[in-house]
Design brief:
Shape: elongated
Number of domains: 2
Strand content: 15-25%
Distance between the termini: 44 Å
CATH class of the largest domain: Alpha Beta
CATH architecture of the largest domain: 3-Layer(aba) Sandwich
Number of strands: 19
Order of helices and strands: HHHHEEEEEHEHHEEEEHEEEEHEHEEEEH
Helix content: 25-40%
Strand order of the largest sheet: 1-2-6-3-7-17
Number of helices: 11
Radius of gyration: 25 Å
Largest sheet: 6 strands, mixed
Oligomer: single chain
């Protein structure tokens, strides 16, 4: 399966045109926008302190009390900004803490785009993790430009940026009459199943919004330009089951057939060579083969038994499948099924697929929001914003809402090492990202 390049070239052309539009000469900030920027600068120490407080509360996804405590910390911030807040409970059997929802009070004089802002309260660092929670990294002159810690950039820094952007708007009177909702989920790192429930309120909010902005970490693209996310690949799974005749190994390649392991190897290598498109990947994460195989999905652990003088009769393969859009998914799945059906003698196989996170397709609407974000950044003297290739980011909450509304991700803090003991945040990025976000929100809430 080779590349249908016309669509890819068209997409590249659209990105280039949109960014060219966004990179026109910097325009002046209005007096109100100048006040917004000044408010963010003035409040920078308090913003860093809010980040510190949130990071010192362990909120690993499975630590429900910790997630709720971080939710309470941010809920207090939104209450003080005049938002109506509530905690969304999830069924106890899902073993998740729930989500925080904050909304501007509804008014008949509402104006501008209806915005939903997304963040998450949880981290991958469960209680007992030895990674230091908060570890400033001072420079030679004593300045702290980088902080290491649990979830500093993924994504408690992003949550703080949401608060700081909205606080600046509130201070200059620019929140009045706006229609803004904020959802901070409690299980982004490991979303509860079924996702129709764990993400049901988010989808409902999207259906009554116009634009979604998500504050996962900001990154730099290959050209060294600050970049935001206009597309993300799906997260899905495949399961390959292979059966064969068990027999003495001396008969392999003959009447006894090739066995399940050779058949699995044939299939996987054919996937690698024949199911090829830009942005499409599939990873066989675990494989078990022999005459007795068992796999525990909940524990992601399995066992296998076999002897070297016996032709293996069974193989199980578990893997993930990531695609840019549903058309690409359907092409890949169809070709994979064709490959599976071309069995070696004495063997047979089946492949099954399961979707998890939907893809966030690159759309003209997403590119338009990126162009406006880039223009706001340039107007503030912070330079243009490029686009992150969809295949370079993992799954995120925004993918559940992107099918319904224009969406942009990556508005959060800059840093690196996410999900590792070396996770860090660049301190100046709190101010930079809050300024960009506040200006974008201000302008969107004044558009029809």
């Amino acid at each position: 399966m080779r590349v249908p390049v016309k669509a890819m070239l068209g997409l590249a052309m659209a990105v280039t045109v949109q960014l060219a539009d966004a990179q026109q000469a910097t325009g002046p900030l209005s007096p109100v926008e100048q006040q917004i920027v000044a408010e963010i600068h003035a409040h920078a120490p308090q913003a860093l302190e809010l980040l510190r407080q949130s990071v010192l509360i362990n909120s690993g996804t499975m630590n429900q009390p910790g997630v709720r405590a971080v939710g309470k910390l941010f809920r207090d911030q939104f209450d003080a900004l005049g938002f109506q807040t509530r905690w969304i409970e999830l069924p106890p059997e899902m073993r998740r803490a729930g989500h925080l929802l904050a909304e501007r009070p509804a008014t008949s004089a509402g104006r501008g785009k209806r915005l939903m802002l997304l963040g998450h309260l949880d981290t991958v660092f469960e209680p007992g993790n030895t990674t230091p929670a908060w570890e400033p990294q001072p420079e030679a002159d004593g300045k702290v430009l980088r902080i290491k810690g649990q979830g500093v950039s993924d994504m408690k820094g992003g949550n703080v940026i949401i608060v700081e952007a909205l606080r600046a708007l509130q201070q200059v009177g620019a929140l009045e009459g706006t229609r803004i909702a904020v959802m901070l989920t409690g299980d982004e790192e490991e979303a509860g199943d079924p996702k129709t429930i764990s993400r049901g309120d988010m989808v409902d909010l999207a259906k009554r919004s116009d634009v979604a902005l998500s504050f996962e970490g900001s990154i730099t693209n290959k050209d060294g330009m600050a970049a935001a996310t206009v597309g993300r690949r799906s997260t899905a799974f495949f399961e390959l089951e292979v059966k064969a005749r068990q027999a003495h190994s001396m008969g392999v390649f003959g009447p006894g057939g090739y066995g399940a392991i050779y058949e699995a190897a044939r299939i996987l290598d054919a996937f690698r060579q024949q199911v090829v498109e830009p942005g499409l990947t599939f990873n066989p994460g675990v494989i078990l083969g022999g005459t007795e195989v068992g796999y525990d999905d909940a524990a992601s652990r399995g066992s296998a038994f076999g002897k070297t003088n016996v032709i293996a009769n069974t193989v199980t393969v578990k893997g993930d499948l990531r695609y840019l859009d549903y058309a690409q998914r359907d092409r890949a799945q169809a070709r994979m099924r064709e490959i599976v059906a071309q069995s070696l003698p004495g063997a047979s196989a089946t492949v099954n697929f399961r979707d998890s996170y939907p893809p966030m397709a690159v759309t003209p609407g997403n590119l338009k929001i990126l162009a406006q974000y880039s223009q706001a950044s340039q107007d503030a003297g912070l330079g243009p914003i490029g686009a992150v290739p969809p295949e370079s980011r993992g799954a995120g909450d925004i993918q559940f809402v992107a099918p319904y509304i224009d969406s942009l991700d990556g508005l959060g803090a800059s840093g690196g090492g996410a999900h590792s003991p070396n996770e860090y945040l660049e301190v100046p990025s709190i101010e930079r990202s809050a300024i960009r976000a506040a200006l974008l929100i201000y302008r969107l809430t004044r558009q029809d």
